[in-house]
């Protein structure tokens, strides 16, 4: 066991949870469930700001002749700007903290680090809600809470991906990660339902209840989460795959035909026998130079810009856009927005399954990205005609928008963070994950901010911004996708399997 890792207290207190009483498969399933609940609760606590936007924001006269009075300082003529700046404060701190969280996560106990992040996130989310009962109307208070909360939230993603990467090898990783990554959409759905359900009692409850949920699940993580198989005496599932790849590497190198694209994406053969080196954490700049990291990181920048614009502004958009000539209530708009996340659940699973079948992460991502463009156009043009049209087109948009986002942040990040170019070094995984998702989170911070400003010119301009971002995301993957296709046509294995044997 790594000296920096302590076994979870519950596993010591209940010896029947240890081998040989429990198998490797049992603990793999438990790790998936615990990390799924952990990150779902993180996302549930991020959803309240989007649900309460229509309550905090500028006045709106509905069809029932009632008025939304708003909440200062967000209810003035520049209210949408202030709300966008609030999103920027959280997501900027989140993306900034992400880079450091991954670097730290590779060097300390991931279980404790994750539990601390969940505790801090829950407390800060509750503090935002306390502004309702304390009658707080100072912008600096809400911005300050969001900044600190963003720093705590940034701890979550590198930790859960690193833990799951420790427990699962490369086989069927796309499908496993695709199913597991639905925690994002499930968390959004749970957060929307909770925040909308208690909104009638005061918008403060929309923050306090999800905040308490994060703290509760954080306790579960602290008590039960095993960080790696070695902590329980199991052999790492990825170790055997690395050894098999090394055995056949010499044969593959003889047959290798170098091309311009292959040179760009591959590195020279390395020796995997130095155990001491494989246990050392990788450097930040060294991780950036790994094959595929930068293109996918910048692709996620634009992909996450689109996804998080929907995450933070979709309930507000539904509330302010009449469906079949009727403006929906705050609660109905919040609940209806979950259809986008339900589509995201299926999108993540479908993208993971297809990428496993094709053995091509970049080709799959590009296909989803390009198909999402007509889906967004149709949703903007025809989503307001009827409730049925709104639901169907919103589901389709969520499926196509969140598919590549889920694939890149899970299976792709794990592939890149455990490739044998870095000697199967699992301790590089949190750093690589943090680089990819941290870069994506910069785009996530920019999207909601731009939406807050651009929406004053009309929602057509917002959707145009989203479509341009999708095309930019596609451009960063063209080179990798081209290499994947060429290698497949030439009878070689695709990019993801070629870098794993380098």
Walk me through this protein's architecture.
It is built from 23 helices and no strands. With 502 residues, it is mainly alpha-helical. The chain starts with 8 loop residues before the first helix and ends with a helix.
* Order of H and E elements: HHHHHHHHHHHHHHHHHHHHHHH
Biggest sheet layout: none
Spatial gap, N to C terminus:
28 Å
Gyration radius from CA atoms, angstroms = 23 Å
The percentage helix is: over 70%
Regions with pLDDT < 50 over 5+ consecutive residues?
63-67, 240-279
Number of helices: 23
Q: Describe the global form.
A: globular
**What is the oligomer described by this structure?**
single chain
**Record field, number of beta strands:** 0
Q: What share of residues are in beta strands? A: under 5%
Computed structural class: mainly alpha
Question: What is the averaged pLDDT score?
Answer: 82
Key terms:
502 residues; mainly alpha; 72% helix; globular
In short:
This protein has 502 residues and is mostly helical. It is built from 23 helices and no strands.
Describe the protein's topology:
Layout (H helix, E strand, L loop, with lengths): L8 H5 L10 H23 L1 H9 L22 H27 L4 H24 L5 H15 L2 H12 L5 H8 L2 H15 L7 H20 L12 H19 L4 H6 L9 H4 L5 H5 L4 H28 L9 H7 L1 H21 L2 H22 L4 H31 L11 H26 L4 H17 L2 H12 L5 H4 L4
């Amino acid at each position: 066991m790594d000296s920096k890792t302590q076994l979870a207290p519950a596993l010591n207190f209940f010896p029947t949870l240890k081998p040989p009483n429990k198998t490797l498969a049992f603990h793999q399933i438990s790790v998936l469930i615990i990390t799924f609940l952990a990150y779902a609760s993180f996302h549930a606590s991020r959803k309240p700001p989007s649900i309460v936007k229509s309550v905090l924001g500028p006045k709106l006269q509905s069809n029932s002749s009632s008025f939304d009075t708003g909440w200062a300082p967000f209810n003035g003529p520049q209210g949408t700007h202030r709300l966008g700046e609030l999103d920027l404060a959280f997501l900027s701190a989140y993306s900034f903290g992400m880079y450091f969280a991954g670097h730290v996560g590779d060097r300390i106990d991931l279980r404790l680090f994750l539990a601390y992040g969940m505790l801090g996130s829950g407390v800060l989310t509750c503090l935002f809600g306390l502004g309702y009962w304390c009658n707080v109307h100072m912008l600096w208070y809400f911005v300050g809470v969001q900044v600190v909360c963003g720093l705590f939230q940034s701890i979550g993603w590198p930790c859960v991906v690193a833990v799951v990467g420790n427990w699962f090898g490369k086989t069927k990783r796309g499908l496993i990660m695709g199913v597991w990554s639905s925690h994002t959409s499930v968390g959004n759905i749970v957060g929307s339902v909770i925040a909308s359900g208690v909104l009638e009692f005061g918008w403060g409850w929309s923050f306090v209840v999800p905040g308490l949920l994060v703290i509760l699940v954080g306790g579960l993580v602290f008590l039960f989460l095993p960080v790696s198989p070695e902590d329980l005496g199991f052999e790492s599932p990825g170790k055997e795959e690395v050894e098999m790849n090394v055995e056949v590497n010499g044969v593959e190198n003889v047959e290798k035909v170098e091309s311009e694209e292959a040179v760009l994406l591959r590195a020279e053969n390395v020796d995997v026998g130095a155990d001491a080196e494989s246990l050392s954490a990788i450097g930040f700049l060294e991780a950036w130079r790994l094959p595929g990291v930068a293109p996918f990181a910048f692709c996620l920048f634009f992909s996450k810009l689109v996804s998080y614009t929907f995450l933070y502004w979709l309930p507000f958009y539904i509330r302010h856009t009449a469906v079949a000539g009727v403006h929906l209530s705050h609660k109905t708009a919040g609940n209806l927005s979950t259809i986008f996340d339900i589509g995201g659940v299926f999108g993540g699973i479908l993208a993971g399954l297809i990428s496993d079948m094709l053995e091509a992460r970049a080709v799959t991502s590009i296909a989803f990205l390009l198909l999402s463009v007509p889906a967004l156009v149709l949703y903007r043009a025809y989503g307001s005609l009827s409730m049925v049209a709104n639901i169907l087109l919103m589901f389709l948009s969520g499926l196509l928008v969140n598919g590549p986002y889920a694939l890149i942040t899970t299976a792709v990040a794990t592939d890149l963070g455990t490739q044998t170019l870095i000697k199967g070094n699992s301790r590089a995984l949190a750093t690589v994950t943090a680089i990819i998702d941290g870069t994506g989170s910069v785009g996530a911070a920019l999207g909601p901010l731009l939406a807050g400003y651009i929406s004053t010119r009309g929602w057509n301009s917002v959707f145009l911004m989203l479509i341009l971002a999708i095309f930019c995301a596609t451009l960063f993957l063209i080179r990798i996708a081209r290499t994947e296709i060429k290698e497949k046509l030439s009878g070689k294995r695709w990019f993801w399997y070629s870098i794993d044997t380098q």
